[in-house]
C-alpha cells in the first residue's frame, strides 16, 4: 500500500534569528551532532579514501570542497587519529555541555577558562572555572603529542 | 561549525536510465547535485551515507520516475556570534577579507581595534599597530561572526575582531607561511601577556 500523505502541512519554521551567542539558537541544527575540525578532517579523509578504493563514485572536485579541505589541513589541531579519538572521548564525558559547545572547545583549543568563556559565550554558567580549566588542560596535553 | 546532517533530495529520472545500474546512477546524480553546493544557509561538503532510497514513483502524464533519497552529509553552517579561525586573503583600507573554509568573511575597519590601523605605505598593504601585531595576506586570524546573509547559491558574512574584554588574551597568528605550530603559539602566548581583546594576534616568530 502507498503511504498516507498528510493532509495538513507542518508548522513553517521561522529562519533568520539563529545565533550562537550566550544562548544557543541553532534553528534546524539545534539537536544535530556537530564535529570538531579534526574530526571532520578524519571523516572526509576516510570517505574519500573509501571512494577512491572502491572506484564506483567520484571524489568531488569543486572549489567548496577543495577550500574546505585546505582549511581543515591548516586549522585542525590534532593530526593523529588516536589523539582525535582521545579528545572525543574526553568531550563525550561532559554531560553538562551541548554538542555545539563541546565541538567548539575541541576546535578552538583555548588555554584558559576565561578565554573559553569569551569565545564560547554559551558556556558561561554551565561549568565551574576549575572544571573548565581541568578540561582544557587535558585537551592541551593531547595537543602536544603531535 | 561542521555538522552531520540528515537531508532529503528528490531526483527525477528519465526512463532511459531505468536499468540494472539505476541506483548507482541516482547516487552519482546526488553527489553531483549536492556536494560542494551552498543552500544559502549552509554548505554541503560531502555525502557520507544513504539511509533510504524510495521506490520510484512514475509521474502521471510523463514517463519519468521520482525518487526521494534520505542521506547523511557533512555540512558547514556559520552562526552569528560563533568564533572561527580564518586566513586573510586581501587587505584594503575599508577592512580585510578572510577565508573561513568555503566562506569569505569581511571584517570592516570599524570592527578592528582602534590601535591596529591601515598602513598604506607598506607593500603589500596591511593593518598594523606599528608594533608586533600585523594583519596581512596569509595571516591567521580568529574572528567573531557578526552576521550572515544568504543569496541563491552563495553566502556572505561579516565579522569582527574588536570584541574587547579586560583580562583576555590578545594574539594574532602571524603568516601561515612561517609554519607557526601550536607549540610556538603557546610560547608566544607566554611572552606577550597583553590583556585586551581576545583575538589571536601572535607575534611574528
From TrEMBL, chain A:
GO terms for biological process: DNA-templated transcription initiation. One of its GO terms (molecular function) is nucleotide binding. Keywords: Nucleus. The keyword Oxidoreductase does not apply. It comes from the Eukaryota. One of its GO terms (cellular component) is nucleus. It is found in: Nucleus. Residues 27-146 form the RNA polymerase Rpb4/RPC9 core domain. Belongs to the eukaryotic RPB4 RNA polymerase subunit family. PANTHER family: DNA-DIRECTED RNA POLYMERASE II. This is RNA polymerase Rpb4/RPC9 core domain-containing protein. It comes from Tuber aestivum (summer truffle).
UniProtKB/TrEMBL annotation, chain B:
Residues 81-162 form the S1 motif domain. Gene3D superfamilies: Nucleic acid-binding proteins (2.40.50.140), RNA polymerase Rpb7-like, N-terminal domain (3.30.1490.120). It comes from Tuber aestivum (summer truffle). It is found in: Nucleus. It holds the Pfam family SHS2_Rpb7-N. The keyword Transcription applies. PANTHER family: DNA-DIRECTED RNA POLYMERASE II SUBUNIT RPB7, DNA-DIRECTED RNA POLYMERASE II, III. One of its GO terms (molecular function) is translation initiation factor binding. One of its GO terms (cellular component) is RNA polymerase II, core complex. This is DNA-directed RNA polymerase subunit. Belongs to the eukaryotic RPB7/RPC8 RNA polymerase subunit family.
